[in-house]
């Protein structure tokens, strides 16, 4: 057997390995839908060298020629769809199907042309070049994952150029006088090895992309409170030190704001734990809406919450810093609970500003101590470590714990 036959067998085995690996990734990480598309892509890719082997060993040349061509074109187009799905873009499956049909129509129109001529070979490779260009465009739209994205884009640049060069390689090396003679040509060896290496590289880099995204989501799940969607303690103690180090490095302030819902047990006792959970979710939604993306909102457990707030270039006035302004905005937002038929609650809390040499533990501990002091002083207030006691605190207007329906009924009379 010729060396090209061995290359075809090797490419079939490699494609099958990618099918199995992507299939396992899709089963292990159900949210990685792109892995399913990549699995299908390499399943189609497996059919290409396998069909070329059948051309060599059977007499069904036309059938397996079309299967091999169509499966390879479909493999690249499906890979482009998978990359789009990964990046969150619409898959455009109908467009990809139309492009596949156009490529197959071009192949049928030129199938009986003269082999080893430049027009024939350009027509043969043009749909593959177009499909790889679409995959390249999709790869450029991937957000984050900078190094891997660059590697994937680079591979598809080479693949695109590869398909543009292949017609000249085919004319120079010869593809055999017939499709059956292809496996014995020097061009077949060069084509199978070069294409195989490039698609293996693309498959590996895409696999790294999927695995990295899956690991990030696994870490995020482990660091997310399942009820409220806020970061939990684990996430706080992973990201908090980084925020503190950035504040020290850049010279800006970092505030810890600890908040505790007042009389939360009373809500559970009076309205049930399901209502208590709704209050926690609603409060977390307030934090989501009011805290800017550079802040970190954390549910410490129960009804206790913590926010880490960088203050870049803001005022350092103890009664007008970012943490104080945010605490006031949170208080105003809580008054809208009545409109949602939720118990209206107040919060007690403490604000601490980082000190030189301080750790996240000590920063949060100081804010937490202030929150406990606010509870002892009658609740419904935020104490600030920048104000010496008994100076004025941020005191909130008391609001009773009752449902919006209770308030409206009382208003009617």
Features:
9% strand, 65% helix, 413 residues, alpha+beta, Rhopdopsin 7-helix transmembrane proteins, elongated, 6 strands, disordered C terminus, 2 domains, six-stranded mixed beta sheet, Alpha-Beta Plaits
Give the strand order, joined by hyphens, for the main sheet: 2-3-1-4-5-6
- Assign the CATH class of the largest domain: Mainly Alpha
Strand content: 5-15%
Please compute the radius of gyration using only Cα atoms. Answer: 32 Å
Number of strands: 6
| Helix-strand makeup class | alpha+beta
Sheet having the most strands: 6 strands, mixed
Number of folding domains?
2
Q: CATH topology of the largest domain, what is it called?
A: Rhopdopsin 7-helix transmembrane proteins
- Mean of residue pLDDT values: 87
CATH architecture designation of the largest domain = Up-down Bundle
**Helix fraction by DSSP (H/I, runs of at least 4):** 55-70%
* N-to-C SSE string, H for helix and E for strand: HHHHHHHHEHHEEHEHEEH
Overall spatial form: elongated
How widely separated are the two ends?
97 Å
Parts with pLDDT < 50 across at least 5 consecutive residues: 388-413
Give me the number of helical elements.
13
């Amino acid at each position: 057997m010729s060396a090209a036959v061995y290359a075809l067998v090797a490419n079939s085995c490699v494609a099958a390995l990618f099918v199995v690996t992507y299939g396992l990734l899709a089963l292990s990480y159900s949210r990685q839908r792109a892995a399913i598309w990549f699995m299908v892509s390499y399943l189609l890719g497996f059919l290409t060298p396998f069909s070329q082997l059948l051309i060599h060993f059977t007499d069904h040349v036309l059938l397996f020629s079309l299967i091999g061509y169509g499966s390879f074109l479909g493999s690249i187009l499906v890979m482009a769809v998978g990359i789009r799905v990964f990046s969150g873009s619409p898959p455009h499956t109908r467009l990809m199907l139309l492009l596949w049909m156009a490529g197959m129509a071009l192949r049928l129109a030129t199938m009986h042309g003269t082999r080893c001529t430049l027009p024939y070979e350009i027509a043969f490779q043009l749909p593959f070049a177009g499909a790889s260009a679409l995959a390249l465009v999709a790869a450029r739209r991937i957000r984050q994952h900078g190094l891997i994205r660059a590697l994937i884009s680079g591979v598809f640049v080479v693949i695109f150029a590869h398909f543009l060069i292949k017609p000249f390689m085919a004319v120079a090396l010869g593809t055999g006088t017939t499709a059956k003679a292809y496996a014995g040509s020097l061009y077949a060896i060069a084509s199978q090895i070069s294409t195989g290496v490039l698609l293996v590289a693309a498959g590996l880099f895409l696999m790294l992309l999927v695995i990295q995204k899956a690991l990030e989501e696994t870490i995020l799940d482990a660091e997310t409170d399942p009820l409220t969607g806020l970061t939990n303690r684990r996430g706080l103690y992973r990201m908090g030190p980084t925020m503190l180090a950035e504040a020290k490095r850049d010279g800006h302030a970092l505030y810890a704001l600890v908040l505790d819902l007042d009389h939360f047990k009373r809500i559970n006792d009076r309205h049930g734990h399901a209502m208590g959970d709704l209050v926690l979710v609603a409060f977390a939604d307030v934090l989501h809406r009011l805290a800017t993306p550079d802040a970190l909102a954390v549910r410490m457990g129960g009804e206790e919450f913590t926010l880490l707030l960088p203050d870049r270039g803001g005022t350092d006035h103890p009664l007008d810093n970012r943490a104080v302004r945010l605490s006031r905005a949170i208080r105003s937002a809580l008054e809208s609970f009545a409109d949602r038929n939720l118990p209206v609650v107040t919060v007690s809390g403490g604000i601490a500003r980082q000190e030189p040499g301080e750790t996240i533990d000590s920063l949060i501990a100081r804010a937490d101590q202030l929150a406990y002091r606010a509870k002892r002083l009658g609740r419904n207030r935020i104490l600030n470590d920048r104000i010496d006691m008994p100076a004025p605190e941020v005191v909130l207007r008391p609001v009773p714990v009752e449902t919006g329906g209770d308030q409206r009924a009382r208003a009617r009379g």
